[in-house]
């Protein structure tokens, strides 16, 4: 029976990994349809609580929800299988794309199309996140000031500082609001395992950068970069863009190569964090892919394992929820800054580029086309534009 349970988890998650287009919000809809409606593995209340947990944690929310459901169904191994099935299809596609693109010329129009589509995708994500995460004047102000601060001080440490300050502001503004009640979650592991996971998470986050100057290894550098980024990114996949860009450009690749990969990542199903497979291939070939993907998602596993046993207590703390509101507003500002740099400044070089970006944006927002279709059309438009203009 246990073996059948694990096969069932892997089968369900692989199906989602092959068909879940559209970004984190769409992924959560696919998950609910598959796990709540069809398979009845949990009810709506428990699912909503898992979504709240994973929005509270840094990292890719949709992947963490999938991991959490797998853990509720089959323990820690079930969580791994749930992640593996959901993630591997896009990892393989993006690693192969990186192998292909490493021999391509960036004068090619379709590459420019991939860079342009990133403008439309980030703008679309910004609209959606702004409505849900910055719905009032206070949070709009936090978002705008966060964007201004990051544009003026474009460093990874500035982003961390902005998140910390936003958390404090959110706490003082919203601390008196009532927190929702939590749902009891049935787990196969307890608080000791959770504490151990948090200890490993913190030890790696602090220790990896300290040891990096002493260890001359490209693979160690890849692990350090992707682990740190996976540990501190709030707001999901799109917000990973500016953090990764500052870590790998220009040390490992140029901005054009980076943005082209981000555009291609919109065309594949699964989580946007699998951009790490594309970057890992360019930074360190096959082992680079394995190390980058493992390091990128390892914090998600540790944070989910560490927080699930304590979530029923954390969920009911108004101060925690208040700080999270400030953090989420800052995330909108981080994405707003990323829309300008690196996305816009790298992709839009002449009026024709901006015209294609407007078309791509309209296809996403107003005509509701699937992202992979928009990516394909934009790549074709880019190729045609550079052939005839």
From TrEMBL:
InterPro entries: Chr_Tranpt_l_chain (IPR014047), Chromate_transpt (IPR003370). It is a multi-pass membrane protein. It comes from the Bacteria. The keyword S-adenosyl-L-methionine does not apply. It is found in: Cell membrane. Keywords: Cell membrane, Membrane, Transmembrane, Transmembrane helix. The chain crosses the membrane at residues 80-104, 110-129, 141-174, 194-213, 225-244, 287-314, 326-348, 354-387. NCBIfam families: 2A51. Belongs to the chromate ion transporter (CHR) (TC 2.A.51) family. This is Chromate efflux transporter. It comes from Metaplanococcus flavidus.
